[in-house]
Design brief:
Blueprint lengths: L1 H7 L4 E2 L1 E8 L9 E7 L23 E2 L1 H9 L4 E6 L8 H9 L3 E6 L11 E4 L9 H4 L4 E6 L4 H9 L7 E6 L4 H14 L3 E3 L3 H5 L3
Parallel strand pairs: 3-5, 5-6, 6-7, 7-8, 8-9, 9-10
Antiparallel strand pairs: 1-4, 2-3
Amino acid sequence: MSATNDLFEGGRKLPVMETFYTLQGEGFNMGKAAWFLRIGGCDVGCSWCDSKESWNADLFPPVAVDPIINDVAAAPAKTVVITGGEPSNYPLDYLTTELHKRGVRTMVETSGVNHLSGAWDWICLSPKQFSPPLEENFTRANELKVIIQKPADLRWAERNAEKVNSDCILFLQPEWSVSKDIMETLTNYVMQHPQWRISLQSHKYMGIP
């Protein structure tokens, strides 16, 4: 841990892959403007990942986050989404503390596979069957978003839903490459199990990042 802290200077540097200002495309906050900060490095390795280039953290040498914090604070939305890669791989207390000082709302998208540092206004937990979340992350989740490739994945979704708090918002999201094939199944499932909602990758329809 000390070596990690030295490399990232206690979170003052992170392996940033990209930053951009756009609209949130998925889940509860879909359609809202936000600054996205994508951190490189992920060892979960989802087959459907649409940012596989983010997996290898070695491709993204750590950079100072202070200039990024200033850019985020200057944006109209005053909201940031930390994504990856896998954000829980890194020390994020400094980043979120400084963002909060500037009045920025902090959101994160994570598989929950590691301890998640940082102070968060919204946590979207997206669990993966082959690398499941730590138990501690279920009760922290504001939103549970489960990617569905095949009908059998619905059983996995329900097992995860049993672990989150009662006020956590539940989403089923069709995996993009099979969305046309699985959509009828998900539609019927949500009509029979209305505690769930459908999440779509609306940014892909809109043609935005």
